[in-house]
Amino acid sequence: MHGVLAVEANSIVKRYGAITALDGASLALPKGKVTALVGDNGAGKSSLVKVISGVVRPDSGTLRVGGEKVEIANPRMARGCGIHTVFQDLALVGPLDVVENCFLGDEVYWRMGPVKLPFLNRFHMAQVTRQALDRLDATTVQDLSQPVEVLSGGQRQTVAIARAVRQEARLLILDEPTAALGVKQATQVLKAVEQLRDGGTAILIISHNLREVFAVSDYVAVMLHGRVVRTFDRRETTEEEVVSAIVGLDRNDPINSVQREASR
Ligand SMILES: Nc1ncnc2c1ncn2[C@@H]1O[C@H](COP(=O)(O)OP(=O)(O)O)[C@@H](O)[C@H]1O
Ligand SMILES: [Mg+2]
């Protein structure tokens, strides 16, 4: 069904004490496609994203990146694998400017031969930041020396996405990217997502907005009780069908039909 997979999670289990947050969740993320991850509160979306981005270790299950099995012990290792996550709080630093945020933790210094000098190569970083924003067609972020705290929500999202672009992300994960944005800003962010997708990056987007999910995604993966119960091809499904799967009334899901029979 899918093309080349960028990242694959198989049978991931994660328990928090007596609570099973992930109960054998599997998800395949193809290159150059947008996959939306949907599901009711508590279904396990954030937990699955945290496992893929190295924030929490799973109790069992495997992750594959570019077909190779990997252990992702922390977010730094995830980034090393090309997995970048824009969490809801964005992790931008308000008083720092656009360039500094784009290179956070990864600053470039002037060098003299092999010797690193204690001066930031701001010129190089600004150039790369501009290129990343241009690749996103992000005309809304012009002045790179502005502190990000004065930017709008949409502009900040764009800076966070530009950071992933600069790092040549294999997979970009966005947790509710447009939840706090107006329509115009949300459109701008989704446009940036499409640019990145067209460059071959796999995108995983958590969203509660079904209209947006249908506008931007190629696949819709539905989580229920810690598992991905169904992955729809967006062109071959309807909002009604997706909602049925979210609430557990999907006739094609064998687990659900058994549960329905049992509850009669
Ligand atoms: N750190 C945690 N400690 C205890 N329980 C957690 C923790 N994180 C998530 N859970 C539980 O795991 C389940 C899945 O949560 P979550 O992954 O946040 O779902 P979603 O993002 O789909 O709303 C929920 O029952 C939630 O309460
Ligand atoms: Mg969540």
From TrEMBL:
**Cited SUPFAM superfamilies:** P-loop containing nucleoside triphosphate hydrolases
What positions does the domain ABC transporter occupy? Answer: 7-250
What domain of life? Bacteria
The record's keywords, sorted A to Z, are: ATP-binding, Nucleotide-binding
Molecular function per GO? ATP binding; ATP hydrolysis activity
Q: CDD domains under this entry? A: ABC_Carb_Monos_I
| The keyword Transport is assigned to this record | no
Concerning InterPro entries, the annotation shows: AAA+_ATPase, ABC_carbohydrate_import_ATPase, ABC_transporter-like_ATP-bd, P-loop_NTPase
Tell me the protein's name: ABC transporter ATP-binding protein
Organism encoding this protein:
Phyllobacterium sophorae
Task: Please name the taxonomic classification of the source.
Answer: Bacteria, Pseudomonadati, Pseudomonadota, Alphaproteobacteria, Hyphomicrobiales
